[in-house]
Write a structure and sequence with these properties.
By secondary structure, the protein is of the alpha/beta class. Helices cover 40% and strands 8% of the residues. Helix 3 (95-107) crosses helix 17, helix 4 runs parallel beside helix 5 and helix 5 crosses helix 7 (192-215).
Length: 448
Amino acid sequence: MDYSIADRQMSIMDKLGILTDAAKYDVACTSSGNERKGDGTGMGNTIKAGICHSFSGDGRCISLLKILFTNECIYDCKYCVNRCSNDVPRASFTPDEVCRLTIEFYRRNYIEGLFLSSGILYSPDYTMELLYQTLYKLRREYNFQGYIHVKAIPGANQELVRMTGFLADRMSINLELPTAEGLKKLAPNKHRKNILTPMRLIQNGIAVSKNEVAVYRHAPVFVPAGQSTQMIIGATPENDYQIMSVAQNLYDKFSLKRVFYSAFVQVNEDKDLPALPGGPPLLREHRLYQADWLLRFYGFRADELLDEKRPNFNVLLDPKEDWALRHLEFFPVEINRADYQVLLRVPGIGVKSAQRIVKARRNGNLCFEDLKRIGVVLKRALYFITCSGHMMYKTKIEEDYITRNLLAVKEKLPAEAGGMTYRQLSLFDDVRFAPQRQEIRQAAGMAY
């Protein structure tokens, strides 16, 4: 491989510091959702319950070894800290360096898997080839059978993407920005078609692989944990309705597992970037995640939650409560008769509690005490339900009245949405992790 002399002379710890920090703005990593046991000849496995999580102060998952292969990039995206015009320290791993770090960190129980993304080094094909080599070595030479999430490079050779898909558990391709217009403005080197083409390739590959595995038990599995994507929120002027409509289309047309929403963090000064005096729009990001959950698990559609006349979410109420208050003709719901899909639309009733209600009422009518034991959040649900025809308290089915009472019930927001500054937890600069820092240095030393 053609690496510069300066890059070859850089220590593994220097590279690790640069390339873990460079990866912190990429949020599209999560539990595997995949079950694949080791075969006894290598190390690691992937269980259906997913990766063992830790979270940083901003809510990002840090349980994986989350790195960029390189922060060198030929593109000049205005929102990206690694844009080619920025004067930042640059570094690149080699495939063997990534493999050895992954193995040494896994052996020390720091990680359960690898999240590998990359800037574009020389060309999309060149970069995708390096990522493929890394995964091939990790699987075949180092016998690593744990979870791997890798980013596919838009514009790369489709055969390289396909071969990499047989080595990864999950693949993702960043949509970057919600609309093609925003992409053209802030990332002029990137094109929507180059992003959607490999998405379709991965979708088709997953479908074909499922059919082959159904017929041939030992057929190779292609991206078993599915694909995901990420959108930056707040860098361009799209409203919440546009963003959720894009997400709905991605779920419908590309069978994505997850869409991730990343609040825009201003790391560059540019006239085309918005000023954010209040910091990253983290509360907005939180509302989008709540709405996304409603799309994936609660049977809602984007145009039910928002529309062109009301294009943004209520910052004071979660999307489900807000929908319920705008559709009071739907309530109250009789707990002992309503079907499962109806129960899911009641604020305070989640997927598990709705399932428990359906199961428990087979043995008789439920009362409010039963609902409390089942896990229903009655301080939210009591305005929208009846048990055997009776409400929990005398209450008015009026929007203003219910809104005032719901606002009095303080919502548990994530720490980052409550005003915490954006910071990714690092094992390199926190005194609480001083002993681990020494072990990490030893792991990096043992790798070489």
